[in-house]
Amino acid sequence: MGIVLFASSVCAAPSATDIVERADTLLWGKTLQGEMDMVITTPTWSKTIAIKMWSDRPTKSFARIVSPVKEAGITSLRIHSEMWNYIPNIERTIKIPPSLMLQPWFGSDFTNDDMVKESSYVHDYNHRLIAEPHIAGQDTYEIEGLPKANAAVVWGKIVFWIRKTDFIPVKTHFFDERGELMRVMSFSDIRPLGGRTIPTRWNIQPVNKPGKHTTLILKSGTYDKPIPADIFSLRNLTQKD
């Protein structure tokens, strides 16, 4: 009698890096063109900044503030590891050195690195699954990211919580090189945008600044469509919208 072998129908679970990459791709795609509001809140004041942005992962990004009037025309450009800001009030283009990528982006709780995605959560960190907690009625993956040896990153450790069902990120904790928690990023208001379902409110809360936080509210988005090359140019930094 012959022996019949059956192939296993059990699919291998995704690796920790695969999970982080799926969440990252869900939010950013290969390319993204969009509009967003950045709401900066402090204990004594708040303001809303309207931004247009273009991203061609993983090498190029461009952001332009369109309102309020005081900040309108401020632009940021990244090409590979180089970043520039243009300040129209002084008609000056400023090159941002790597040492300042952790600095706030124009008074917000998002860093220069956040806004132009100079470092990559996927490629610049080694990942491992450390737990599978149940959060707010959802099963999640809890994944630790530690910098690769030669990666030019701004965080000493990142911990991600990502939903199992759809790879939507729930929250992310950012630690400095001493292992101290510096800020918490949370994701909410999940809805269709740009042909995919994503969290459209991204909030950053610094641990050491009570009452201060910044929220990005995504208003529109076009994913995976070609972006003209001249968007990502030094000349475009000084162009009016």
Name the descriptors.
mainly beta, 241 residues, 14-stranded antiparallel beta sheet, disordered N terminus
Note down, in words, how this protein is organized.
The structure is a single chain. This protein is mainly beta. The protein is built from three helices and 14 strands. Strands 1, 2, 3, 4, 5, 6, 7, 8, 9, 10, 11, 12, 13 and 14 form a 14-stranded antiparallel β-sheet that branches. The longest helix is centred in the N-terminal third of the chain and has 13 residues, at 16-28. The termini are far apart.
Assembly category: single chain
Shape: globular
Distance between the termini: 77 Å
Describe the biggest sheet?
14 strands, antiparallel
pLDDT averaged residue by residue: 90
Query: Helical proportion?
Result: under 10%
- Strand runs, count: 14
N-to-C SSE string, H for helix and E for strand? HEEEEEEHEEEEEEEEH
Amount of beta strand: over 45%
The structure class reads mainly beta
Enumerate how many helices there are, as a single number.
3
Q: Which blocks of ≥5 consecutive residues have pLDDT under 50?
A: 1-9
* Radius of gyration, whole Å: 20 Å
Brief rundown of the structure:
This protein is mainly beta and 241 residues long.
How would you summarize the topology of this molecule?
Elements (H helix, E strand, L loop, with lengths): L15 H13 L2 E11 L4 E11 L3 E8 L7 E5 L2 E6 L4 E5 L15 H5 L8 E7 L2 E2 L2 E10 L9 E7 L5 E7 L5 E13 L2 E11 L6 E11 L10 H4 L4
Antiparallel strand pairs: 1-2, 1-14, 2-3, 3-4, 4-5, 5-6, 7-9, 8-9, 9-10, 10-11, 11-12, 12-13, 13-14
